[in-house]
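Sequence in, structure out.
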Amino acid sequence: QEQLVESGGGSVQAGGSLRLSCRASGRTGNIHYMGWFRQAPGKERASVATIMWEGTTSYYADSVKGRFTISRDNAENTIYLQMNSLKPEDTAKYYCAARSFGSTTYDRWGQGTQVTVSS
């Protein structure tokens, strides 16, 4: 069964750091991209950072550039999101997602992990 399982969320004060992890299981050979998305209450889900499963291409939302870093460990089928200098506006539920080859959308999603940043 294909699954994405996130971990690493929590509560932190502004200026602090957190590291999110997402492990993919099941059929991973067809993954083209993986990424992190977030959704705050009353807002639409938005892309935070994405990375090619094989290769170096990555993307960051302007709001997190210079503070967040996405990385992967293919041997562990895991991606990470290192979040530094966190701000209250980073508070959201963070979701891991995967996009398959040939797909134009992210077609596999994790359950999400909550990140809360207090001022």
